[in-house]
Write a structure and sequence with these properties.
Order of helices and strands: HEHEHEHHHEEEHEHEHEEHHEHHH
Strand content: 15-25%
Largest sheet: 6 strands, mixed
Bound molecules: D-xylonic acid
Strand order of the largest sheet: 7-6-8-5-9-11
Radius of gyration: 20 Å
Distance between the termini: 46 Å
Structural class: alpha/beta
Shape: globular
């Protein structure tokens, strides 16, 4: 299928990148692209989903367009989508080592590198987009981006992956009892694992690029993602039911290797930050439109969509209260309090 061909092509491209780098022809001290072509600096960006249909990919294209025009071509942005250069975790590691310049992971795998980001993974933390915006454009959001510096990462901005919903191939999830024993793929993140365990499901952590095949081969019953990615990744083709649970909110975090960031002049850094902010605002808006649009397309293609009754949601919230206490220490008590008061 389409996805698999992409993946194979991606592997080939990734191999050739490694080969060229191994021959010492690129990436000298993070200043690849500089010099020979009249001072042009190139930013190499890797992303786990598509560049065309996914909202994250569209946001990255927007960033590229802004940077290249505002720098008058002095800074070039090269985009590699579909997991060609790796998954969220491996690309973040590549950033730390300085072998990749930029990526856009979900906040959840990033939490493995910086525990503050676990805050966003708390179940039902946000009820709606305006609460999200208060936190990510407010103090807590900014502080968390800045805190990535310790990990050798420059945190630039928040894009939006979105509110996550559950798909599965067995039966509609109308109550928490319906989750019992369902083998659901989750991101590699401890809060997500503990949350689904608390609801009686059987969570299986897995990298994103393995999910489609696992659904198709039925080694898992289902998974959770925002509507945009359930559509973009084609998961709906291998699933019968989509439950609009909106149980987690996942931001995308636009990050650059510190080494690359430091290679830019103060003036260029200002330009890059401004482009990241503008692209982020555009992308969040776009994602919110696409969320609805792609849900409509999936309904047309035959997936059965249902909501969970409000009383059941209340019950699910009760069941995961201990998780807030359990993780407050790792997130930072003060940080969690600040986030909760920003939401109010
Ligand atoms: C790739 C990932 C992915 C995430 C996941 O873009 O792993 O489920 O939602 O979209 O960031």
């Amino acid at each position: 299928m389409k996805k698999r061909v992409c993946f194979l092509m991606g592997m080939l491209m990734a191999l050739s990148v490694v080969f060229v780098a191994g021959c010492g022809m690129a990436g000298q001290d993070g200043k690849s692209g500089q010099g020979a072509d009249g001072g042009v600096q190139t930013i190499k960006v890797g992303f786990g989903s598509s560049l065309d249909t996914s909202s994250g990919g569209q946001g990255l294209k927007k960033f590229k367009e802004l940077v290249e025009s505002k720098s008058n071509g002095k800074i070039k942005v090269d985009l590699y989508g579909d997991g060609q250069l790796g998954n969220d975790k491996s690309m973040t590691e590549a950033l730390q080592m300085g072998t990749l310049d930029m990526t856009l992971p979900s906040g959840s795998p990033l939490a493995e590198f910086n525990k503050a980001f676990l805050a966003f993974d708390l179940p039902f933390l946000f009820d709606n987009a305006s609460q999200v915006d208060k936190v990510i454009t407010g103090n807590s959001g900014k502080e968390m981006l800045a805190s990535l510096e310790v990990q050798n990462i420059k945190g630039l901005a928040y894009f939006e992956n979105g509110f996550r919903n559950i798909t599965n191939s067995k039966h509609p999830i109308q109550s928490v009892a319906d989750m019992k024993g369902l083998k659901l793929r989750v991101m590699q993140n401890p809060i997500m694992i503990d949350t689904f365990k608390a609801w009686g499901a059987n969570p299986t952590p897995m990298a994103f690029n393995e999910v489609f095949t696992a659904l198709e081969q039925k080694t898992i019953d289902g998974q959770d993602n925002p509507n945009t990615l359930i559509y973009d990744a084609g998961f709906y083709e291998a699933q019968k039911y989509l439950t609009l649970s909106r149980h987690f909110y996942t931001p995308y975090v636009l990050i650059m290797s510190k080494k690359k960031w430091d290679s830019f002049s103060a003036e260029d850094q200002k330009l890059l930050q401004a482009c990241a902010d503008e692209a982020a605002e555009w992308q969040r808006e776009t994602n919110r439109k696409l969320d609805e649009e792609y849900l409509g397309r999936m309904k047309e293609k035959g997936i059965a969509v249902n909501e969970i009754a409000p009383e059941e949601i209340t019950k699910m919230k009760e069941m995961v209260k201990p998780i807030y206490e359990q993780y407050a220490g790792q997130i930072g008590e003060a940080r969690l309090k600040a986030i909760q008061s920003e939401i109010q």
